[in-house]
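In full, the data.
>
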Amino acid sequence: MARQTRADSPRYAILVVDMLNDFVHGKLKCARASRIIPNIQALLDAARKKGIPVFFCSDEHLPIDTYEMKIWGPHAMKGTEGAMVIKELKPAKEDFVVPKRAYSAFDGTGLDKALKGVYDGRGANAVIITGLHTNICDRHTAYDAFVRGFEIIVAEDGVDALTEEDHVSGLQYMKQVYGAKVKKVSEIIKNF
Protein backbone atom coordinates (compact mmCIF):
# COMPACT_ATOMS: atom_id res chain seq x y z
CA MET A 1 0.00 0.00 0.00
CA ALA A 2 1.37 3.37 -1.02
CA ARG A 3 2.02 5.83 1.76
CA GLN A 4 -0.10 8.95 1.56
CA THR A 5 1.93 12.10 1.10
CA ARG A 6 1.10 15.65 2.10
CA ALA A 7 0.32 16.54 -1.51
CA ASP A 8 -2.46 13.95 -1.82
CA SER A 9 -3.80 14.14 1.73
CA PRO A 10 -7.42 15.21 2.08
CA ARG A 11 -8.22 18.90 1.92
CA TYR A 12 -11.69 18.79 3.40
CA ALA A 13 -14.62 21.15 2.98
CA ILE A 14 -17.83 20.78 4.97
CA LEU A 15 -21.09 21.25 3.07
CA VAL A 16 -24.10 22.02 5.27
CA VAL A 17 -27.11 21.50 3.04
CA ASP A 18 -30.48 23.12 3.74
CA MET A 19 -30.41 23.30 7.52
CA LEU A 20 -33.04 26.01 7.25
CA ASN A 21 -36.01 27.10 9.32
CA ASP A 22 -38.51 25.85 6.72
CA PHE A 23 -36.96 22.37 6.70
CA VAL A 24 -36.35 22.02 10.43
CA HIS A 25 -39.27 23.96 11.93
CA GLY A 26 -41.53 25.24 9.14
CA LYS A 27 -43.34 24.56 5.88
CA LEU A 28 -41.45 21.38 4.96
CA LYS A 29 -40.55 20.31 8.48
CA CYS A 30 -38.47 17.18 8.83
CA ALA A 31 -39.25 15.99 12.36
CA ARG A 32 -36.09 13.86 12.28
CA ALA A 33 -33.82 16.89 11.70
CA SER A 34 -33.47 17.71 15.39
CA ARG A 35 -31.44 14.55 16.01
CA ILE A 36 -28.66 15.57 13.60
CA ILE A 37 -28.21 19.16 14.82
CA PRO A 38 -25.83 18.31 17.72
CA ASN A 39 -23.73 16.11 15.42
CA ILE A 40 -23.42 18.86 12.81
CA GLN A 41 -22.56 21.35 15.57
CA ALA A 42 -19.75 19.07 16.79
CA LEU A 43 -18.45 18.61 13.24
CA LEU A 44 -18.46 22.36 12.54
CA ASP A 45 -16.71 23.15 15.84
CA ALA A 46 -13.97 20.61 15.07
CA ALA A 47 -13.62 21.78 11.47
CA ARG A 48 -13.32 25.44 12.41
CA LYS A 49 -10.63 24.63 15.00
CA LYS A 50 -8.64 22.88 12.25
CA GLY A 51 -9.18 25.64 9.69
CA ILE A 52 -11.38 23.44 7.49
CA PRO A 53 -13.72 25.59 5.39
CA VAL A 54 -17.46 25.37 5.99
CA PHE A 55 -20.00 26.05 3.25
CA PHE A 56 -23.67 26.60 4.04
CA CYS A 57 -25.51 25.55 0.87
CA SER A 58 -29.04 26.77 1.35
CA ASP A 59 -32.21 27.00 -0.67
CA GLU A 60 -33.12 30.57 -1.47
CA HIS A 61 -36.00 30.27 -3.94
CA LEU A 62 -37.68 32.80 -6.16
CA PRO A 63 -41.35 32.56 -7.21
CA ILE A 64 -40.21 31.62 -10.74
CA ASP A 65 -38.70 28.36 -9.44
CA THR A 66 -41.86 26.54 -10.50
CA TYR A 67 -40.05 23.23 -11.02
CA GLU A 68 -39.79 22.80 -7.24
CA MET A 69 -42.88 24.81 -6.27
CA LYS A 70 -45.10 22.40 -8.22
CA ILE A 71 -43.86 19.51 -6.10
CA TRP A 72 -43.17 21.04 -2.69
CA GLY A 73 -45.07 24.35 -2.70
CA PRO A 74 -43.37 27.62 -1.80
CA HIS A 75 -40.52 27.04 0.64
CA ALA A 76 -37.28 28.72 1.67
CA MET A 77 -38.25 31.81 -0.31
CA LYS A 78 -35.49 34.39 -0.68
CA GLY A 79 -35.60 37.03 2.05
CA THR A 80 -37.93 35.08 4.36
CA GLU A 81 -37.30 33.66 7.82
CA GLY A 82 -37.88 30.20 6.33
CA ALA A 83 -34.78 30.57 4.14
CA MET A 84 -32.51 31.37 7.10
CA VAL A 85 -30.09 28.84 8.59
CA ILE A 86 -31.41 27.60 11.94
CA LYS A 87 -30.07 29.53 14.94
CA GLU A 88 -28.31 26.45 16.35
CA LEU A 89 -26.03 26.31 13.31
CA LYS A 90 -25.66 30.00 12.56
CA PRO A 91 -22.75 30.50 10.14
CA ALA A 92 -19.56 31.90 11.65
CA LYS A 93 -17.94 34.95 10.06
CA GLU A 94 -15.32 32.79 8.33
CA ASP A 95 -17.90 30.42 6.82
CA PHE A 96 -19.14 30.63 3.24
CA VAL A 97 -22.83 30.96 2.37
CA VAL A 98 -23.89 29.59 -1.02
CA PRO A 99 -27.50 30.29 -2.01
CA LYS A 100 -29.03 27.65 -4.28
CA ARG A 101 -32.25 27.33 -6.24
CA ALA A 102 -32.11 23.63 -7.12
CA TYR A 103 -31.54 20.35 -5.29
CA SER A 104 -27.78 20.27 -5.86
CA ALA A 105 -25.54 22.76 -4.08
CA PHE A 106 -23.48 22.96 -7.29
CA ASP A 107 -26.32 23.63 -9.74
CA GLY A 108 -26.15 27.26 -10.85
CA THR A 109 -24.08 28.36 -7.85
CA GLY A 110 -20.47 29.40 -7.37
CA LEU A 111 -19.72 26.44 -5.10
CA ASP A 112 -17.31 24.71 -7.48
CA LYS A 113 -15.24 27.86 -7.93
CA ALA A 114 -15.30 28.58 -4.19
CA LEU A 115 -14.10 25.05 -3.38
CA LYS A 116 -11.23 25.49 -5.83
CA GLY A 117 -10.22 28.74 -4.13
CA VAL A 118 -9.74 27.45 -0.59
CA TYR A 119 -6.47 26.14 0.85
CA ASP A 120 -4.51 29.03 -0.69
CA GLY A 121 -5.78 28.17 -4.15
CA ARG A 122 -4.94 24.46 -3.97
CA GLY A 123 -8.64 23.77 -3.51
CA ALA A 124 -10.56 21.24 -1.50
CA ASN A 125 -10.39 17.68 -2.81
CA ALA A 126 -12.84 16.06 -0.38
CA VAL A 127 -16.34 17.19 0.57
CA ILE A 128 -18.15 16.15 3.72
CA ILE A 129 -21.90 16.31 3.17
CA THR A 130 -24.24 17.11 6.06
CA GLY A 131 -27.82 18.36 6.26
CA LEU A 132 -31.16 17.67 4.62
CA HIS A 133 -32.44 15.60 2.79
CA THR A 134 -30.36 12.45 2.37
CA ASN A 135 -32.30 11.22 -0.66
CA ILE A 136 -32.81 14.57 -2.40
CA CYS A 137 -30.49 17.56 -1.98
CA ASP A 138 -27.66 15.59 -0.35
CA ARG A 139 -27.84 12.95 -3.08
CA HIS A 140 -27.90 15.49 -5.94
CA THR A 141 -25.03 17.41 -4.36
CA ALA A 142 -23.07 14.16 -4.09
CA TYR A 143 -23.62 13.50 -7.80
CA ASP A 144 -22.20 16.89 -8.77
CA ALA A 145 -19.25 16.38 -6.41
CA PHE A 146 -18.69 12.94 -7.97
CA VAL A 147 -18.54 14.19 -11.56
CA ARG A 148 -16.13 16.94 -10.45
CA GLY A 149 -13.72 14.41 -8.96
CA PHE A 150 -14.16 15.16 -5.27
CA GLU A 151 -13.80 12.47 -2.66
CA ILE A 152 -17.24 12.25 -1.06
CA ILE A 153 -17.82 11.62 2.62
CA VAL A 154 -21.38 11.55 3.92
CA ALA A 155 -21.90 12.08 7.63
CA GLU A 156 -24.30 9.22 8.33
CA ASP A 157 -25.52 10.82 11.56
CA GLY A 158 -25.25 14.34 10.14
CA VAL A 159 -27.78 13.88 7.31
CA ASP A 160 -31.41 12.85 7.44
CA ALA A 161 -34.66 12.64 5.48
CA LEU A 162 -38.39 12.67 6.06
CA THR A 163 -38.44 8.89 6.65
CA GLU A 164 -35.94 6.23 7.70
CA GLU A 165 -36.49 4.49 4.35
CA ASP A 166 -35.61 7.68 2.44
CA HIS A 167 -32.55 8.23 4.64
CA VAL A 168 -31.22 4.69 4.22
CA SER A 169 -31.93 4.57 0.48
CA GLY A 170 -30.14 7.89 0.00
CA LEU A 171 -27.06 6.67 1.89
CA GLN A 172 -27.00 3.38 -0.03
CA TYR A 173 -27.35 5.12 -3.38
CA MET A 174 -24.51 7.59 -2.71
CA LYS A 175 -22.28 4.79 -1.48
CA GLN A 176 -23.02 2.38 -4.34
CA VAL A 177 -23.27 4.79 -7.28
CA TYR A 178 -20.85 7.60 -6.30
CA GLY A 179 -18.40 5.68 -4.12
CA ALA A 180 -19.23 7.90 -1.15
CA LYS A 181 -17.73 6.94 2.18
CA VAL A 182 -20.49 6.87 4.79
CA LYS A 183 -19.06 7.62 8.23
CA LYS A 184 -20.22 8.68 11.66
CA VAL A 185 -19.39 12.27 12.63
CA SER A 186 -17.10 11.05 15.43
CA GLU A 187 -15.04 9.06 12.92
CA ILE A 188 -14.84 12.00 10.52
CA ILE A 189 -13.58 14.27 13.30
CA LYS A 190 -10.88 11.74 14.26
CA ASN A 191 -9.56 11.89 10.68
CA PHE A 192 -9.07 15.68 10.71
